[in-house]
Amino acid sequence: MSKVRTLPTSSAGSPAQTREGLLDVLLTAVAERYPQTGKFPTPIPGLFVARRAPCEQLCGGHEEPTLFLQLSGRRRVGSREAWVEATRGDLLRLAFEQKFAIKIDADATNLPMWTLGLTIERDRMMRLLATLPPYTGEPVYSTDVSAVTCEPAPLRTLGLFWEAFTLMERFEREGETPILRRQADTLVDYFYLALLGSSWAPTLWALYGDANPTIKAVAEGIRLITRSPESDVSLEALSEQIGLTPSVFTRHARSMLGLTPLQYRKEARLIVARGLVLEGSMSAERIAFGLGYTSTSQFFQDYKRKFGISPKASLACP
Predict the structure, then answer these.
(1) Which of 29, 61, 141, 253 is the residue whose CA sits 20 to 30 A from 206?
(2) Cα 68–Cα 149–Cα 242 angle in degrees, nearest 5
């Protein structure tokens, strides 16, 4: 990490209050502080910085509910043919824990991809919602809750990311004090409140509040598959575990993911396989059988269909 640097400010004492001005300030600060490839936590709960180089192949990803502020580069996220694209200034939102494929390309600036991210902590969001009046908006259906969405980041959200960076500077100068820790927690609450005042509010109320218990149960089922994609538990048993019928679980999962639960499990297995192939410590055959495949030829066929290349020919993303 580079030397602490005071962020550029206007005469009013804050970065230029335009979207482009704030994006320029944030990109400059992130690029100077985090020149290495990787994902880096910060003292702000849930806030991280990530740098990735363009990748020739699809990569696999696993994320908790997260916001990604795209500062440079182009990221495509999705499953099967349902891709969502984020470029500079976009806020990419992952509504619930899931596995997905990603493709990273350079943008017109030819810079690596830098993003600021904020992981949504379920318990914190639920505690915050419990302090607010009940949801009174339009009924929330599964068709309203997409796994991945993207929209231009509001100016207020950009300002909160900038405030997080200025607070990080204080952590570096002063160390972790009780006052700074309290300020960091308060800032995260402001992030959540900003989200609850955005177009994402119905989704958050459905997933973390009481707006739609069915959607919350479906997200839990998806989370269980995400964490154990190698499991061969039946759809009936999984549906019973989350308190839904198989038909209800399947219908709502298809609306939220674009895939049925069993299709998603297959997708998640391939994404796990991608990571294991790139680690290079296991043979493709061992990976296939460990993930529940009974036929290596079927695994090779599915892998190539998903990633466009065989396991043997796969290249690690930078």
Answers:
(1) 61
(2) 100
